[in-house]
Amino acid sequence: MNSDGWLHALTGELHRRGVDADLSRHVVAEAATHLRDSGEPPLQVFGLPANYAAAVAESVGTPRPGAGVARVAAPAGPPPAPGPVRLDVRGITKRYRRRTVLSDVDLTVRAGEIAAVVGANGAGKSTFLRICAGLLSPDSGQVRVYGKLGYCPQSGGTNDYLYPEEHFALVGAGRGLDRAEARAAGRSHAAALDWDPAGRTQARHLSGGTRQKLNLVMAALGEPDVLLLDEPYQGFDRGTYLDFWQQLWRWRADGRAIVVVTHLLNQLDRVDTVLDLTPARETSA
Amino acid sequence: MTKIWTVAELALREVLRRRGVLLILLVFPLAFYASRRGDHAGQSIRFVCLGLSWALSTAALFAGSAARDIEPRLRLSGYRAHHLHLGRLLALWTVGAVLSVPYFLLVRFDQTDVRYGAIALIMALTVATAVPFGLALSAILPKELEGTLVLLIVVGLQMVMDPADTASRVLPFWFSREIGTYAIDHTDSGYLVRGLVHGVTLTLALTALVATASGIRLRQRRHLRFE
């Protein structure tokens, strides 16, 4: 199935599941952008259109006639009080030639908080995260990180010819972990995403979703204080998507500061801060 | 040192798993050697050294390009830029050293009346120079195709330019022709010294270029402060 066929099928499946037309267009546009940018086959990245649509429908809480709806279970009880500031972003402005992508953007995330970065295609979500990670320079503004930083890119970021556990060893050595510690930590984070990383499968042979799990585990190794996650759930199946959000809440409960780029808007009532880059303003959830 | 060794070990594993590339690396210089073995034994030695330099530079170019994706996140994971480029240099130098041994043995047992020590020196300098040359190209030219074309031009010029021409001394493997003349034609040691100085200087300069390019690309940006 080519990308056009897959996107058409996804549109139909979303409609059948009663997903709001605007949200449906948004989801399809995001998927199309990802497929175009990555050049990967849609079935490998997202799976079957029906399954992906079902995951979207469930995550937005749209009832399907005759079917039970399992929303992502939010953590029980009130969230713990946020701790000290871990990420402080002030006055970030970024231009590409004459086009201003980010204009005077501020964001503060404390320990034990999740901030969601949302916005339309081209709004500068990934640019913002890359600036926060120090991978890209802004035209003006400052980022202060209090502690260690972990970053999960939207795609790439792995070595095609290494096994998952070799990736853990590589990142672990940078974090000061020995091989056994890195492997144990990697396996533990992978288990939370329902993934067994043992075995001799090179990264290039992993499915798109599994490679993103590897990416996410690499970002979390060494227990960074600030986690920057750029749409890390691309290609996740429904179950893994739910596991991902559960893991995010666990990390929040552990006192991490998390920034996640997302376009699945139903989760916004479960995060602490929303940075909407479409109008370039910050609102609180 | 643990970080450098880890990068080196995993970079070496990566290269060893690229079996097609390894096979080409192994066979490529042999084709150069065989092409002139019948009519001019001396030229076949010069050509095998050039083939080795071309193969290793290309391997380093591709290894450097492949690493561009993962290195920024490794930098964020606690590595410094020098851990990454030194580890990769060590891995590729090891591959080069291992690949050059059979070619030295080939010359040793297939050729007579040659200064074998000088041939070993050419091969050692070839490995030392070709790796940072390929990595430097990957740092300067992020697109593999552009880097490959530049390599093609450099090695082509290396073959056609007269080594006695002053301009040919700017080419990275000029030392190979100079020491080759000493080894094959039994000229005076001036050829050996000039070649040695050229090879060592180029190796140091190219390694410094790789370190500088890596340091710039993976620098901590001024807007980001860790408290």
TrEMBL record, chain A:
Keyword list, A-Z: ATP-binding, Nucleotide-binding
CDD domains: ABC_DR_subfamily_A
Keyword Chloroplast tagged: no
The protein's name: ABC transporter domain-containing protein
Domain ABC transporter residue range list: 87-285
Upper taxonomic lineage: Bacteria, Bacillati, Actinomycetota, Actinomycetes, Micromonosporales
Keyword Ribonucleoprotein carried by entry: no
From TrEMBL, chain B:
Entry keywords, A to Z: Membrane, Transmembrane, Transmembrane helix
Transmembrane segments: 20-35, 47-66, 86-106, 118-141, 196-216
Keyword Transmembrane helix: yes
Top-level lineage group: Bacteria
Record bears the keyword Transmembrane: yes
Protein name: ABC transporter permease
